[in-house]
Amino acid sequence: MNYSGIDLIKKLGLKQRHRNRDTVSDDMTKFLSTSIFFTAAAAVAAPVLAEEVNVYSYRQPELIKPLTDAFTAETGIKVNVAYLKKGMIERLEAEGDRSPADLVLTVDISRLAGVVNAGLTQPVESDVINANVPAQYRDPDNQWFGLTTRARIVYASKDRVADGEVTTYEDLADPKWAGRICTRSGTNAYNVALTSAVIEHHGEEGAKTWLEGVKSNLARKPQGNDRAQVKAIWAGECDISVGNTYYMGKMLGDEEQKEWADSVRIVFPTFENGGTHVNVSGVALTKSAPNKDNAIKMMEFLTSPQAQEIYAEANFEYPIAPGTEASELVQSWGEFTADDVNLMTLAGHRSQALKITEQVDFDG
């Protein structure tokens, strides 16, 4: 029950008509002192809001939890993660300035660029992050930062494709592969990013010619995911496919799929005037970020060598901080030189890549 100051005085029996001024003054002093004590005690007893940071993630819980646990153990900051399968941009736009999200975690440059281009992020100036993330793996305006990379490579049949028979992405359009290539949809984000890289190296017309050549070599219509292409090689439906490196690790850890994985070798193709195409997983600070300082602390942690190696180990990817190493399994697949084009440049070619993919009716 709430009382006014006068009611409290009356309740305590401090009636002025029975007191002289000095007595009232003494009692009032005691009352005020007591009130201050209980107010202070209540403040001490009141629950203190925990330090926290809120994350929207397209990455799976099993990949993120080891990182959030390690961050909380080191800093005491609680991490709340909302795992999304789609609609991140739409959700952030609908929430606007009221969004609880501080960070977004996602894969593929097109998704990172999409969040940035929608005006849903803000730049981060951090010497720690810049030291951990090479320039080619972060936004030129510091709107997003890479955490790990994966290469878009060729899976080749051990039985039907000789060592050195395919060495470049340009080789995939060679007529010698007619009826021997499998791939997922040309409009899949991973393949759109690869086509964007072809545009960067050969221009839009050159990329269109390349796509037409690859399409003419397909053994079947594009379908399935990257692992489905390896299964098709194992089944003898085709001889080569393109896919992300980490799927090899996932297949080797699956009792059924290990046989598929054992039927192929990984080949790291390059562009004739460049390196091996890579993509990223990355993080960005949201425009609203109610816990901005904590969020930046988490970004610095996520880009640290310690965290990147945890992250890379969990998903068979490559950490990018200087001095870090991939897992022994990933290293066993061989070495490669990554193409040095800034990924935001490739994101700028996305609409062109989609256009020419539709023009050649790649999936038809």
What would your notes on this structure say?
There is one protein chain. By secondary structure, the chain is of the alpha/beta class. It has 2 domains: 52-149 and 278-331, Periplasmic binding protein-like II (D-Maltodextrin-Binding Protein, domain 2, 3-Layer(aba) Sandwich); 150-277 and 346-359, Periplasmic binding protein-like II (D-Maltodextrin-Binding Protein, domain 2), CATH 3.40.190. The chain has helices at 5-11, 21-45, 61-75, 88-95, 109-117, 127-132, 189-216, 226-234, 246-252, 258-262, 292-302, 305-315, 328-331, 343-347, 350-359, and strands at 52-57, 78-83, 103-107, 145-157, 181-182, 240-244, 264-267, 278-285, 318-319. Strands 1, 2, 3, 4, 5, 6, 7, 8 and 9 form a 9-stranded mixed β-sheet that branches. The longest helix has 28 residues, at 189-216. The protein is globular and about 60 Å long. Mean pLDDT is 88; it is low at 1-49.
Structure, briefly:
By secondary structure, the chain is of the alpha/beta class. Helices cover 44% and strands 14% of the residues.
Total beta-strand segments: 9
- The CATH architecture of the largest domain can be named as 3-Layer(aba) Sandwich
In the CATH hierarchy, the third-tier topology of the largest domain is known as D-Maltodextrin-Binding Protein, domain 2
Indicate the low-confidence ranges by residue numbers: 1-49
Q: List the helices and strands in order.
A: HHEHEHEHHEEHHEHHEEHHEHHH
Mean pLDDT metric: 88
Largest sheet geometry: 9 strands, mixed
Tally of distinct domains:
2
CATH top level assignment of the largest domain: Alpha Beta
* Gross geometry: globular
Q: What gap, in angstroms, lies between the N and C termini?
A: 74 Å
DSSP strand (E) fraction? 5-15%
Query: Percent range for helical residues?
Result: 40-55%
Structural class: alpha/beta
Count up the helices. 15
Can you tell me the CATH superfamily of the largest domain? Periplasmic binding protein-like II
Rg of Cα set: 29 Å
